[in-house]
Specification:
Largest sheet: 7 strands, mixed
Order of helices and strands: EEHHEEEEEH
CATH superfamily: RelE-like
Oligomer: single chain
CATH architecture: 2-Layer Sandwich
Length: 140
Amino acid sequence: MTVPIGAVCDRCGRTVHGKGVCYEIESARDKDGLEQASMSLASLIHSKSLKERMAVEDMAHRFAVYAETGTLEVPRQLNVLVDGEIWDFKAGSLRAPFFYREGQECGSIRVTHCFWKRTKPAPLPEIDKAKAIKREDGLR
């Protein structure tokens, strides 16, 4: 199912990035109630840089495919960052860390934020940020 960019979940009010038979992908909220992933993607989609706009379009495609099929090519499009806890969607050097929420009413996947990967291993501060947003989202 194609979800328009910026669609909002009618149950929890979060931004939905993909909705399919396997998953519903939406933005997590940080301690301030902000959706870091949504803010990053919105900023990039309006970028003057063609590379950045294309990366966001590729990421939106990854969200749609994963929500519908539950599969992506590992490790080119999907990767585990922290075993069993944090994964990331990959579109070129754009990354979108996420976590799974089993047995929840909505948002079976929550995307924490986005970042540009410029080093071989994912930067530890980005992994720590994803963990923190996961923890903070659980309080909301």
